[in-house]
Every structure is written in structure tokens, then in C-alpha cells.
Amino acid sequence: MMSEKFSMRNYLRGLKYPFCSGCGNFTIANAFLRAVFELGHKDLSKFVFCSGIGCSSWIPSPYFLADSIHTPHGRSIPVATGVKLMRPELNVVVFGGDGDIAGIGLSHLIHAARRNVDITVFMVNNMVYGMTGGQVAPTTPLHMKTSSTPYTSFEYPIDVVNLVVEAGACYAARWTTIHQKELREAMKKAILTRGFSFVEIVSQCPTMFGRRAGFKNVTEMLEWFRKNSISVEEAERISEEELSGKIVVGEFIRRTRPTLTDMIREVMRKAKEETSIEG
After folding, report:
1. Is this structure's pTM higher than 0.85?
2. Chain Cα centroid distance, residue 45
3. 3.40.50.10310, 3.40.50.970, 3.40.50.11780, 3.30.930.10: which CATH number matches 8-278?
4. What is the rounded distance in angstroms from the CA atom of residue 249 to the CA atom of residue 240?
5. Cis peptide preceding 141, ω within 30 of 0
């Protein structure tokens, strides 16, 4: 398989993506499809994609040549849970933005990690509600200008990766679009993880975030990612004050736990045994 040359066209319907020039979603789609290719999948027949509302939710649907479901805003994870319970042999993958996953859909994210649902969630964090006008989001860095906070944001951003780790995720990582090789490897690990896996991808949005935040172009945004990214290991050695404004990247957790499907099947097995004994 690896002797074959990778081509995105083998996995796409041939439709033109609607993203703005310089959008990180192009990089993310490429990284994911390369990861799938490197895992040996010649097509996406073993995958089902679920996505909500937002720019990054358009990464898989309708552009991937695959089965996909568009859901109401913030509801992609419960739909993905249902798909996985009915078709456990498939790789069920969620794509969504920080507003979709960490805003309106946050409770679903937490409980999917707690239940250890065997799905993979890729959260594209462009730090604003990009599709609806660039409003402040749960992940907007402190003191950043957005369309709804013209005098800069005054709320602390949520650390979504550490939240899902505490909730019970089996795999969690964070990378930016500048870390293309590392991101691709994290995507492969997330797909292969048996249990709930989560990858946060910090991505540039030059149209709705960059211009208000003071970046002249996409290159400046990517350089900002590079300069402010520090590893998980390095972050553990510095103070909370020094961490302010930094993007902590790397793997946060990798562990094994019984999945929701395992737990349900065990309960069903015990119930059948008890019914048989009583009969």
C-alpha cells in the first residue's frame, strides 16, 4: 500500500471546498486523508463521519467520498454514539469546531469521554465562531479582539484537552496546523485507539479571527503558532503565569479502559445468564 502514491482525489467527491483562502481546514483535511492512507485504507468504506454546524464541520460532508451525517449544532457526538452502538465494526469520526464541540456541544463531549464511547473526535479550534461572524468563543485567548468583544475578550479560555482527559478519554492530543507531521501521527493513533479519542487542532482563521486580532496575513498567524507552542513536558516545568498565552502541544493521555460497548455487552451477558438460571 505504501508504495502507492497518496492522492486526496481518491477520497473526495470532486466538489470544491467552500473555505476562505488560507483557512486551516485545507491542511486538516489533507492531514486526515494522509493518515487514513498511511493506515492502509484505500477508501473510506470503513468510516462514518458525523459533523455539526460550522466551517470545520464541512471537512467531511459532503466532500469525503463516504457515509456522513450532518447534525444540528452541537449534536454530532450523540449521533456518532448511536452509529457506533449499531455498527461497532466501523470507524466513527466526528469533525467539529470549538464552538460546536466545546460550546453548545460541551456536555455531549464530556459524557462521551466519561462513557468511553469508541469514537474519534477532531476539534478544529480556530478560537472564534468563524462561520457566524467571528464572535468570541469558549476557546478565544484572553484579551483577543473579536466581533463581539471589540475591546478584547475578558473570559479565560477553556482547556478542552485536559477536560476530556479528566473525564476519561483513552487518547487525547493537541497540535496546530503548523505541526503537520505530528498532527498526522496523532490522527492515526486516535483512529486506532479502542475507546474515546480526541485531538484538538489549533487552526488559523484569517478572515474572522486573524484580521481582528491584528495579524497581517496567514504567515503571521502560523508563525504565532510556532513561537507560542510548547510541549506538554516543557509546560509541566513552568509556572501557570508563564503558560499564559502559550499553546501546549503533544499527547496528554494514552490509556486503556473498557468501552461503552464492552460495558453494555457485559450487562447483557449477565442479564441473559440470570434469565436462563431463573427459567
Report:
1. yes
2. 21
3. 3.40.50.970
4. 16
5. no
Of 27, 121, 43, 45, nearest to 79 by C-alpha is 121
- Tell me if 134 sits within 8 A of 196, measured CB to CB: no
Q: Provide the CA 239 distance to its chain's centre, in angstroms.
A: 27
β-strands 47-51, 91-97 pairing: parallel
Q: What is the pLDDT of residues 119-159, one digit of tens each?
A: 999 999 999 988 888 899 999 999 999 999 999 999 999 99
DSSP 138-153: TTPPTT---SS-TT--
CA 76-134-226 angle, 5° bins: 90
Question: Cell numbers 496546530 label which residue?
Answer: 176
* Segments in 145-259 forming alpha helices (H): 160-167, 180-192, 211-213, 218-228, 232-235, 240-243
